[in-house]
Design brief:
nine-stranded antiparallel β-sheet; 2 domains; alpha+beta; seven-stranded antiparallel β-sheet; globular; 18 helices; Beta-galactosidase, Chain A, domain 5; 671 residues
Length: 671
Amino acid sequence: MTTLTVTPLTMPGVALGAENPLPRFRDRITTRPVSVHANMPARKLEMLGSECGLRVLPYRMQETYTRQRVDTTYETIVLENETLRATFLPAVGGRLLSLFHIPLQRELLNRNPVYQPANLAIRNAWFSGGIEWNVSQYGHTFGTCSPVYAAAITGADGEPGLRLYEYERCKNLFWQIDFYLPPGSPWLIAHTRIANPNDDPTSMYWWTNTAVDERPDVRVLAPTKEIIYTDLTGKGYDYAYGEMPILSTFDNKDASYSLHSGSANEYFFQPDDVDMPWEAALGADGSGFIEASTPMLRYRKMFCWGNHQGGRHWQDFLAPGGKPYLEIQAGLAPSQLHGLTMPARADWHWTQVFGHIQGDPAMVHHPDWQHAWQGVDRLLKGKLSTARLQALDAQYTARADLPASTILQHGSGWGALELERRAGTREPAVSAAFVFPSTSLGPEQRTWQTLLRTGQLPTQDPTAAPGAWMVQPAWRTLLEQSASGATDWYALLHLGVMRLEHFDSAGARAAWEASIAIQPSAWAWRNLAVLARWDDDQERALACLANAWQLNPTVMELAQEYMELLCAMQRFAEAHVVYQALPAAVTVHDRIQILHARIALELGDEATVERLMQHEYAVVREGETELTDIWFGLWYRRAQGGTPLSADQQREIRRRNPPPAHIDFRAINKE
């Protein structure tokens, strides 16, 4: 018997806080440069780096959380049969928090005992554990820490199922995952659909990220020996082509055991000719987690934090009181830095299954790679044939357009607004599966609904946060044509953001200067500072940020950018003056405190540096070294006595004065 229930779950958690009001503009170079070794096959160079530049808008950054966890109750949705219990967190991206095997009384995933965001996603906030669904743009997805819609659906035999879905604003597309757990099934079945109901193609990205417990005995297997791996031996993250299991980046050890790596590491399996791609993480007894999919979701990845202080700190930092994890991932493209184009009006579907498998330990851990993975492949297909998985895919594709029966969790109001906008156009229809009630519209959507219905954006107080951004071309057309587009400071502010996000620097500058002429605002001055920095005019950028900060000195993000530029220009005394003028509510933020530490170091205030190095910071970026750089800088200053230190002397100082673990966020062990 299958059941679907809504169940409260209380665990330590952190509130995200207010989103950053300042727009984070996309990288001007949309194709990310990727260095590759000469052995990379030509076919694997296609689309490498395409559309992988940072892209955030129209979303805002989520970066004001702390490490102060309190017991918090979350609504979970539990889909359960006699074999598996799947627990979802729709309020935070629809994360599959737990997949519990009932007969074995065994958790199959790495389950995080807390909700502790950290700086690893496109929008900053991300948390570890379970299974994450990443759609649209390179990186941990826009909505990974935001609510998504969850609704009850019905399976082919009348059993309950669960649909997660949402409207994705950056690419103007829709996605859904229909989960089924038929009575007696040993597999949680996930049928995924991405819909591009538009007349233009778009870049696309999908990776299913599964966290499983990491132990010395856990081996990662997939049905190929060919991989693209990250070569950490050079100065950068070079891509190279190789074969499992022995890799130089794992100290010439078997890379299928993640703890053989001395640094954060990853590689991508290339099962190009496989009819049912899969990946497994199996322990010493030959058992563990396995997932498989139809061929569209072809590629697989292994990620680990590495067996070094920075990696161990990340594990503890992300899941205090939890277990270390590694990730096995499944994606549409050969690597996460390979772009993909989704055609106009395309509708993509695939089916993925998750469950437990028991293999012979001698086979699973056989030193011959092919012997090991082929044994697991035979075992898997004995439980789930390729033909059976394809039949499930066809069955659930046919049900993907059926509306859900009951909405159990609401996501954002942007889907409802988009459906209203499309209703007055000749644009292609959206599937009936995507139900967005008008009751989901909130104040931010109603601002843009006013433009849609009246032709004008409502004006507002220039000292108030500017609200939600919009960059979709259809909304830009509406705003360009609106009566307020040339006469209202607020409309011009938004128009400039739209223009710059679509690489019209001159048009953006004109809009923001016109906005300031009507009504000076910190927001327009700050955006002009962005343009000045892009033009390499640091003095102009500094003057613009000074104007912005003076107009609204209580906005933490403005103070941060102002101080960051002063520090980049080596004007530490001026940065210190700005810091001293900040209200206490601003100085408590992590980024301001880290800048304070840098300023104190450069001004010779060692006591302040020591005090600030004792704090546990929440928002440090993956691989960021600013805290350890400040720590080593303190010891260099103490040792040099006015005389420059040689590289060998600095290396010895680093060896003798390792940073405290709580400030060590390095991803690569370079010592």
